[in-house]
Amino acid sequence: MSPAEQIAHHQHEVFSASRAAHLDTPLRRILYRPDRLAERFVKPGDTVLDFGCGPGFFTREFAKRVGEQGRVYAVDLQDEMLGIVRGKMESGRLQSRVVTHQCRSESINLPDHLAGTFDAVFTIFVVHEVPDPEKLFSEINVLLKPGGILFFSEPPILVSGSEFRGKIALLEKMGFELVERSLFFVNRAAVLKKK
Questions:
Q1: Residue 150 near residue 171, CB atoms below 8 Å
Q2: DSSP 3-state helix, strand, coil percentages of the chain (rounded to 5)?
Q3: Per-residue pLDDT reduced to its tens digit, 111-137
């Protein structure tokens, strides 16, 4: 299989929970600085969606930042990943701030009463795993409050610059405003605001 074929093959492959330890290492904490990401985009009292949370690498920092009055919804397709998140939140005494939720491959699947309640949504290194990104972005649009932000990041090895720009254009057609486009360590990243 050529490198291009290997990349295409892995585009919609979900990162296995059996490799969760690879997602939460001291080196990744230094490189990605989840504490700084939370500091920059999450305020005390916020309601945050960490979509594709995996083992909670970013979830923990979001939970610290929202405080007692806020909530973080840690959403993942794999119940094994959510079990890891629950364990981390209990050991860090953050369980009262985090709601874990198992999504379906075709839907975030959060209850309707949560529409328009999220201040921030984070999709970090996960949209390339989703079979229908347009449907995902549409659901995120429903969940976010007006003025809420979407932090969207993808690895360049799996998502080309033109693919990433195409997803930003799709979000702009849905009514999002591009606020910032940058690198998140070596990954493509964009911050968009719901109008």
A1: yes
A2: 45, 25, 30
A3: 999 999 999 999 999 999 999 999 999
